[in-house]
Write a structure and sequence with these properties.
The complex is a heterodimer. By secondary structure, chain A is mainly alpha-helical. Chain A has helices spanning about 10-35, 50-65, 65-75, 85-105, 115-120, 125-150, 160-185, 195-225, 230-260, 265-275, 285-300, 305-310, 310-335, 350-384. Classes of the chains: A mainly alpha, B alpha+beta.
Chain lengths: ~375, ~250
């Protein structure tokens, strides 16, 4: 089944070469950063984490969202997800690999990264996050290929894989929870130090992940012979709807707590995001775009009539995805640093090399997912 | 009782070790040990008298001494800045004490800030490799060779006391001191309470350099120490005490 990655039409090869090209440009940009230092990014002593770590955070959510197809299928025996479970697991693999790459490109001394395992510090959330991510990657590779291999032979998956699949469910929750703990445990950053950070991360993950999966499934139906079925798409849409509602609800909880309590340490970060502080307002247009897109999403995805219409559903999935990407990939991390703990406003915006490196990482992820989906679909369409 | 075989071998072995080790011990004895014995404490702490500091307006003796001694680079761009000890306006150093009609002098009082060497340091908890650790005497230390440059400690420090080497520091070092290591690009650094000077029996460079004696460094656990005397006699404050970090730098304002 692995050899199928070498057989494809012209469009397939053009797409692969296109991605490889972007990956190469990103790699060149990384070489520059590697040789000259992280000063070529927009980061500073005041905003010391930025675009890379934000992408990492967002993608942990995408990875964790695989549980939204695994859980109904394996725990509730929801048959309609039978065809797309593998797509969820194969989405998680490149998502985790991208997470790790974003962490890697953010390191000041990347060649020392194994010190995390050579000198593990059990009190550090970062150590546990590394463990959680590695474990999740291994679980998904294992589960994905074992179940796919059985399907190819038209036999039931081996019995011993079932407990491992069950384990992957809480493990998926754990990766995003521990990632939230990275931030929520820091007394220095009041914006992140909120008990709803992990629930918020999970809600936004379970909205953006299934939305992305819907887009993939519909795209695959157009490009290939693979059809996941209307029911699966609609069920994913319902999951995304509930999760998005919950996500917006949790954001409003944060706003209430910050503003009604009147504690300026908390509210000042929201002010920075939505109106700007002391004339600094880099994030303002982004955050309003994210909020407006979230409202548009809800308007289109909540009413059953527009959710069942695939055209409006696709539109809502795109707005949902962009809204959450801006919230997590642009706002969340940077706003925690501005103003800094001394009350000074030092802004941040990613630089061109920083964006090229990030684009390269995303191209790598797209490349991996293309190859994985090619393998999965070769089995799926042949068996069908 | 006679000497049995086992005891004979024991005695013979020990004698051999003693004979062989004599020259080694002699050689070690020849090594120049520092003349002063190291300064030791159960818990190091510092009191900074901002009134004395303010009276000597424009003085940067402690900052210059520290940064010169430790090969701290001087970058023109604030984005790349590395600093171990520096001044902040009172309203920033004591952000939570700022108020609208605060005494004018106080508002712009240049408050000297450095690593607080917290008793409960959040940076140590955050560090995934143990590159930042707390010594038994309370000093929050750094192993620059172990640091992977993840900057989680920068996120965890509520005082902005940590600096990251965004670019190669060497070209920006004004006058390189050969007896202190320079750092490399991609790692974090900060004040170490001059552990290298303490080991030689010297006070930290900033304390030694202060012309008005505004910085006092001593053992907090010793009831007879100068730090304890100052704390008992003056109203002192610490930065962000509510966070539970227990900073070991006290300010007289």
């Amino acid at each position: 089944m692995y050899d199928k990655i070498f057989y494809g039409n012209k469009g397939y090869w053009t797409w692969l070469i296109f991605l490889a090209g972007i990956l190469f440009i990103g790699f060149l940009a990384y070489l520059k950063q590697f040789n000259e230092g992280l000063y070529i990014t927009g980061l500073s002593r005041d905003v010391s984490w930025g675009f890379y770590i934000a992408q990492f955070t967002f993608l942990v959510g995408v990875a964790a969202s695989a549980v939204m197809v695994v859980l109904p299928y394996y725990l509730h025996n929801y048959k309609a997800f039978g065809k797309i479970t593998i797509l969820g697991e194969f989405l998680a693999i490149p998502a985790v690999i991208m997470c790790m790459t974003f962490i890697f490109v953010d390191m000041g001394q990347p060649f020392r990264i194994l010190n995390v395992f050579l000198h593990p510090s059990l009190k550090s959330v970062m150590f546990w996050d590394t463990v959680a991510l590695f474990g999740y990657l291994v679980l998904n590779i294992f589960i994905g290929f074992i179940t796919l291999g059985s399907e190819r032979k038209s036999i039931a998956p081996p019995k011993w894989i079932k407990p491992i699949i069950i384990l992957s469910i809480p493990w998926a929750i754990s990766i995003h929870t521990v990632t939230a703990f990275l931030y929520a445990g820091l007394a220095a950053r009041p914006f992140w130090m909120t008990a709803v950070l992990a629930p918020r991360f999970l809600a936004s993950a379970f909205a953006s992940g299934p939305a992305l999966l819907i887009l993939f499934v519909l795209l695959l139906r157009k490009l290939t012979k693979f059809d996941a079925g209307k029911e699966a798409v609609q069920k994913l849409a319902v999951i995304a709807t509930y999760a998005m509602c919950f996500n917006v609800f949790l954001i409003l909880m944060e706003v209430f707590t910050a503003f009604y309590s009147g504690i300026s340490e908390h509210s000042v970060h929201f002010k920075y995001m939505f109106v700007g502080v002391e004339g600094h307002n880099t994030l303002v247009p982004w955050m309003w775009t994210s909020s407006i897109l979230a409202i548009i999403t809800l308007i289109f995805i909540i009413p059953p009539s527009s959710r069942r219409n695939e055209k409006t559903l696709v539109f809502a999935c795109i707005t949902l995805f962009i809204s959450i990407w801006i919230d997590k990939g642009m706002g969340m991390i940077v706003a925690g640093y501005v103003p800094n703990p001394l009350g000074k406003v030092v802004e941040y915006f990613p630089t061109v090399p920083e964006l090229l490196i990030s684009l390269g990482v995303y191209a790598m992820g797209a490349l991996i997912i293309t190859l994985l989906y090619k393998i999965a679909l070769s089995v799926k369409t042949r068996v069908a | 009782m006679g000497v049995d075989r086992r005891n004979f071998i024991k005695i013979a072995g020990l004698s051999t070790v003693a004979l062989v080790s004599k020259p080694v011990v002699d050689a070690l004895a020849d090594i120049d040990l520092p003349e002063d014995s190291p300064l030791e404490a159960k818990r190091w702490a510092m009191v900074i008298d901002l009134k004395k500091c303010e009276a000597n307006e424009g003085c940067t003796a402690c900052i210059d001494a520290c940064h010169l001694e430790h090969n701290v680079p001087d970058f023109k761009d604030a984005k790349d800045e590395i600093k171990w000890i520096w001044t902040e306006h009172f309203e920033h150093a004591f952000h939570e004490l700022d108020q609208e009609y605060i005494n004018k002098e106080l508002k712009h009082l240049p408050a000297l800030v450095l690593c607080n060497h917290c008793d409960n340091p959040p940076c140590v908890r955050a560090c995934p490799t143990g590159a930042t650790f707390k010594r038994d005497d309370g000093i929050v230390m750094m192993d620059w060779h172990r640091c992977i440059g993840c900057r989680y400690c920068l996120a965890a420090c509520p005082y902005g006391s940590r600096s990251f080497n965004w670019r190669d520091p060497k070209p920006a070092i004004k006058e390189e001191k050969p007896n202190y290591p320079t750092r490399m690009r991609g790692i974090v650094e900060k004040c170490t309470f001059c552990d290298e000077r303490l080991a030689k029996g010297q006070m930290p460079a900033c304390v030694d350099a202060c012309p008005v004696g505004a910085l006092v460094f001593d053992d907090l656990e010793n009831p007879d120490s100068i730090v304890r005397k100052l704390l008992a006699e003056n109203f002192t404050i610490r930065r962000k005490p509510g966070l539970g970090t227990k900073p070991e730098i006290y300010y007289i304002v």
